[in-house]
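Hi, here's the filled form for the chain we discussed.

Project: internal
Contact: R.S.
Residues: 505
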Amino acid sequence: MRFRQFLLAGAVLGAACSKEPTAMTMVILGATVYDGSGLSGIVTDVRLAGSRIAAIGNLVPKSGEWVFNAEGMALAPGFIDTHSHADRGIFDDPSALAAVSQGITTVVVGNDGGSPYPLADFYSRLDSAPAAINLASYAGHGSLRHQVMGDDYRRVATQVEVDSMKSLLYRELDAGALGLSTGLEYDPGIYSDYQELLHLTQAASAEGGRYISHLRSEDRDFWPAIDEIIRLGRDAGIPVQISHIKLAMRSLWGKADSLIALLDAARASGVEITADIYPYPYWQSGMTVLFPERNFSDRAAAHFALREIAAPEDIRFSAFDLEPGYVGKTLAEVARSRGGDPATTLLAMIREVAAAEAAGRPANETIIATSMRTSDIDRLVQWEWTNICTDGELDGQHPRGFGAFAKVLGDMARQREVLTMGEAIRKMTSLPARNMGLADRGYIREQAVADLVLFDPELVADQATLADPHRPAAGIVSVWVAGELVYDRGQATGKRPGTVIRRGH
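And the returned structure, exactly as it came back:
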């Protein structure tokens, strides 16, 4: 039987009530409960009292208590997205439909080196106007670098500038930042050296913070980039997490086991290294990431990128302000329309964007490029210390924003059995909570925060596509944050019980 309904205690089972529950307690009956540990689910009942889980077991509804019939459904802790860009749209869409419609109740923002600045102001605004979901943030290295160096960032920072960044980092950590994030493939982080990163990670470590990084390279210089984050973890004595781990170049395909062996060796030596991942073979970024030397006249580099990283047919424009008609087209198609070859077209478009930006014209551009192999993604997902993320926005053009968690449950767990359902849920709940240092979340147990997702294990699936990236997942029935229903029957409820999760609080 696959249905959900609210019932008054003592009412005839099956009689639906159209009004949402307002009582202080609710009991969810007959769900297959996955507690977040990785174990198989067990059929049992769960009582919520206010914002907490009050009891688990064979429960008898109390007089006046709302009863939620969950027979045939799976109940899990609310999913935790460790790499989100929801900060870019949370005030425009406080219902956070992209997140809650796939069961996400907590997001971690401030990734890739970019964070709201100052965090205290961002947090204060969320405190006064909460969202449907909980939110934690890192302090972004790029944001700190911009505050100190402005537009003069295409160089190694001086010690005085590094000390200034440290002072700002301490302030952000005091405000509750989880730690430091970097985006070392992006401006301005790409220009930093190891000593700059070491000073900052040591500062974060001294305050009990963590380090999360979009590596310096996910393709050409991948192995040195892995060595760098391991070295930082060891030298700074700080937990480190690889953002959206991937093998994004043809010569790296099939190297997942070698990578895992390297990471396991680092952990065995005392480095607390972890990773997150999204289940798609294509990424989204700007065209410039294809050129780590930032030489946009280098035809050899362009040819290499289009041969080894992503073919012209596998690069699709998701934004291009200078010519909106390019959106949805591949680089190969744009090149043909311009009467040029793909390498020449790619270099020309980058220079056109730069010229427009220099003239003060809007020139946003993004691409979605296929660079990974599914078998490598599967293997990296299986690593014990990899948790699931979206790397998505609330209004983004990559289907991961609406679909990543549902895709893991439906495709990887149910259909292809890459993971068991219990292990998939662990990688969405208790593991990300551990990797982020979050307390009271990630498990279904008494007195834990009542962040919960109810889903149909036979129907859950991602439905977002490149052509329709905002299509909500199937099979997500209901989602609670702090005991309040924020998503139900395909709709956000308008409730906003989310809180700011500050480090140390």
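Let me know if anything looks off before we file it.
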